[in-house]
Amino acid sequence: DSAVGVDIEKLTAVKNAKRIAEKILTETEMEEYRRLALSPEHANEFLLEAWTQKESLFKTGIYPKFIPNRICGAENVQTRQIFIGGERYILSVASKDVLQAKLFENSPYPL
């Protein structure tokens, strides 16, 4: 049995993105964010992906407290962009077994 955490966010511009990034990203993630900041669209997408990854990991119950800048979002998470009603969303699913999962592959339930 493996706990699963899921988070989804609509891909929209993040207000006060730099301030939020400084609060929620790890040092390594912040370096990547600064590199991407030359393209605000890519930086915004990176920030939302990192957020959904951290939220989904927290929802698994692995972390007793939600301290985003201490959660590395890349481990045990699969992240996809999906379209619902013509809008673009970022979906992250976390689990210790998620790397073996096949999200949406041959799904009979299209979004």
Architecture blueprint of SSEs:
Layout: E1 5-10, H1 17-24, H2 27-36, H3 40-59, E2 77-84, E3 87-94
Antiparallel strand pairs: 1-3, 2-3
Helix pairs in contact: 2-3
Q: Which stretches are low in confidence, meaning pLDDT under 50 for 5 or more residues running?
A: none
Please tell me what the overall shape is: globular
Order of helices and strands: EHHHEE
Cα-to-Cα separation, first versus last residue:
27 Å
Number of helices: 3
What class, by secondary structure content?
alpha+beta
Radius of gyration: 14 Å
Percent strand = 15-25%
Question: Helix amount, in percent?
Answer: 25-40%
Major beta-sheet overview? 3 strands, antiparallel
| Widest sheet, order of strands | 1-3-2
What is the residue-averaged pLDDT? Answer: 86
Number of DSSP-assigned strands: 3
Task: Please describe what this structure looks like.
With 111 residues, the chain is α+β, with helices and mostly antiparallel strands. The two termini are 27 Å apart. The protein has 3 helices and 3 strands. 29% of the residues are buried. A 3-stranded antiparallel beta sheet has the order 1-3-2, with helices on one face.
Outline of the structure:
The protein has 111 residues and is an alpha+beta fold. Helix content is 34%, strand content 20%. The protein is globular, with a radius of gyration of 14 Å.
